[in-house]
Design brief:
The chain has two domains: about 70 residues, Histidine-containing Protein, Chain: A (2-Layer Sandwich); about 130 residues, 2-Layer Sandwich (60s Ribosomal Protein L30, Chain: A). It has six helices and seven strands; from the N terminus they run αββαββααβαβαβ. Strand 1 and strand 2 form a beta hairpin. The radius of gyration is 48 Å and the shape is rod-shaped. It starts with a helix and ends in a 5-residue tail after the last strand.
């Protein structure tokens, strides 16, 4: 009885070892054909196609199973042809899905660009008005009494020329800002107030003496905060003490 059991155990062990060897050979066969097929597909850059094997090997017919998604029927056909080149395969089971991308046609809208000749002409006039004002002040300054908001009489002729330009530009200039500036001498807070008072003094002369529309004129004082020259020199400080005119065609306060 003991010998019989030993014999039976030996037969079972041999059977198990045979099955393991067979299974390992089947896995090796499957891996070989799958890799071989993938290699053929990669030559055509078909990386989206999946490969599997159907059949047990040896006496069973082996089929290559292709799956995955491609974007065209021609790609699908080419994948089947490539897989069929592998020797030892009975056939190819084609399960590839073709999904064609949707073509979205974009509607091109061409907008007609209209050139506003009136606006262009207006901008030209504004630029000319500003240039005329700048040119007047580049040749002659508006002078004040020292540390006071009193315009010297010698500057009246300059204000007359400025008033003429402002009246000519009334059609396009909604408002004109009169900006007062000082040098850095003295207290900054006092300089700010002095620059504002000087701008107001210029506005008053333009309105009272040269009959410029007061509604067109705005005033502001910047003190010594916006220098245009070096305050460490006499010449620089003289340049920084100034009145500027800025045209505003939008009429902002």
């Amino acid at each position: 009885m003991k010998k019989f059991l030993l014999l039976l155990s030996g037969i079972i062990l041999i059977g198990l070892l045979s099955l393991i060897c067979f299974a390992n050979k089947v896995d090796a066969i499957k891996s070989y054909f799958v890799n071989k097929t993938k290699s053929e597909l990669s030559k055509e850059s078909m990386y989206s196609v999946d490969v599997d094997l159907r059949g047990k090997g040896f006496s069973t017919e082996l089929w290559t199973v292709l799956s995955g998604v491609v974007t065209d029927d021609s790609i699908k056909k080419k994948a089947v042809e490539s897989a069929s080149k592998v020797d030892g395969i009975f056939g190819v089971d084609d399960k590839i899905t073709v999904v064609k991308p949707k073509v979205v046609k974009k509607k091109i809208v061409r907008e007609e660009v209209k050139i506003d000749t009136k606006e262009i002409e207006k901008n030209k006039k504004i630029a000319k008005c500003q240039n005329d004002l700048n040119e007047i002040l580049s040749k002659s300054k508006i002078h004040f009494a020292s540390s006071k908001a009193v315009v010297k009489e010698e500057s009246y002729v300059v204000l007359k020329d400025i008033s003429d330009v402002i009246k000519e530009c009334k059609e396009v200039a909604k408002s004109i800002m009169i900006e007062g500036h000082t040098d850095s001498s003295g207290n900054s807070k006092k300089n700010m107030e002095l620059s504002l008072q000087r701008a107001k003094a210029v506005k008053k002369l333009l309105v009272d003496r040269y009959f410029v529309d007061s509604q067109m004129l705005k005033v502001s004082g910047f003190g010594d905060s916006v220098p245009i020259a070096d305050n460490n020199t006499t010449e620089g400080r003289a340049k920084n003490r100034r009145i500027e005119f800025k045209i505003d065609d939008e009429g902002d306060e």
